[in-house]
Design goal:
Layout lengths: L4 E5 L3 H13 L3 E5 L2 H10 L4 E5 L1 E2 L2 E2 L1 H10 L3 E5 L15 E3 L4 H20 L2
Helix pairs in contact: 2-3
Length: 124
């Protein structure tokens, strides 16, 4: 797990700060963004191993970032209080960790997503 870089796109400051601190303590490098444009910028500049995405960032849906992450082969999952029924049809296959969540639930989702991405790469 050491040295893996995560993108955390979350517009609730307390949630972002708390989760970032917990994930940093768990050994991850965490890059945070509260706005869609900032999150896209981070994804374009940095090598991201996995992304944790709130669906709605200050009124903008995160789907343009999802498209970029998919094109780059970066695994990601959603966190939301709205549930999977709030997702756009083309993203209903993406895992969701419902809010409120525990740090352990998020870490488990990170590991599953990165393991799945590694399996897809090895299978090619």
């Amino acid at each position: 797990m050491g040295g893996k870089t995560l993108l955390l796109a979350e517009d609730e400051m307390y949630v972002a700060m708390t989760l970032s601190d917990l994930l940093t303590e768990a050994g991850y490098r965490v890059l945070t963004a509260a706005r869609l444009g900032d999150a896209i910028g981070v994804a374009e500049r940095e090598r991201i191993d996995c992304a944790i995405l709130d669906i709605n960032l200050h009124g903008e849906q995160v789907y343009p970032l999802c498209d970029r992450l998919r094109e780059s082969g970066v695994p990601f999952f959603f966190t939301s209080a709205y549930g999977a029924e709030g997702l756009a049809e083309e993203y209903r296959d993406v895992p969701m960790v419902p809010k409120p969540y525990t740090c352990d639930e998020v870490v488990e989702a990170i590991v599953r997503q990165m393991d799945g991405a590694a399996g897809e790469t090895q299978g090619r």
